[in-house]
Amino acid sequence: MLLQLFGSADMSLSENLQRLRKERGLNQDELSEQSGVSLTQISKIERSETDPRVSTIEKLAKALGCSMDEMLFNEASQGLSGLMKRAFERASKLDPLDKAALLKVINMACAGGTMIKTLDDIYLDANQQAEMVQRVHGQKIHPDDAVVSEMSFHEMIVDQNRDYHKRIDELADAEAKTVLEWKLDKSGEWGR
User: Looking at the domain assignment, is residue 192 inside a domain?
Assistant: First the structure.
């Protein structure tokens, strides 16, 4: 009945359950122990042979550390925003150094093409800037002067990104040290 409400969710549930279980390094038996759902039931869900109750999906989601909608819905139907949301949920569980690497990649992507412009692109932008200044202000600027301005802008962006990445590294190092201290303290081998 639950799967009828969500249409093609049965295929998504079976695929998502398998994916989430494997991402967490669990076999079906381990998931059964952690969730309290029988091994047979988990196997049937992963083969799309059963229509699990909401309470069963809730137990599995809790054991897997995810939301019920992450288990139920087809990622392809969620669009890019849905995929980004799920990716960030998973990324929040990464270790600090992996989080830092991911933040750097995202930062570079958000900087747009400004970080990866070819020299031809810079000259094209400079020519457009020179034409705009002449049209708006009536001042004639040689495109080479505009190139210098354009290059200065890109150098500023590179410097800002370098500073941002340095702050990310500092945060990651501090978080990694805290996690390590907590793990060592918990194991009794080393205290803070």
Answer: no
Asked if residue 132 and residue 84 are part of one domain, the reply reads no
Tokens of residue 115, six digits: 């970080």
In a domain, 138, yes or no: yes
| Averaged pLDDT, 177-182 | 74
Residues 76 and 146 in one domain: no
Could you tell me if 142 and 66 lie in one domain?
no
The single-letter code of the amino acid at 182 is: W
pTM summary value: 0.44
Residues 101 and 173 in one domain: yes
* 56-76 pLDDT tens trace: 999 999 999 888 887 887 655
Torsion of CA 54, 57, 58, 61, to 10 degrees: -160
Cα–Cα distance, 31 to 71 (Å, whole number): 14
CA torsion angle 58 60 65 71 (round to 10) = -80
**Dihedral of CA 31/37/41/44: which sign?**
negative
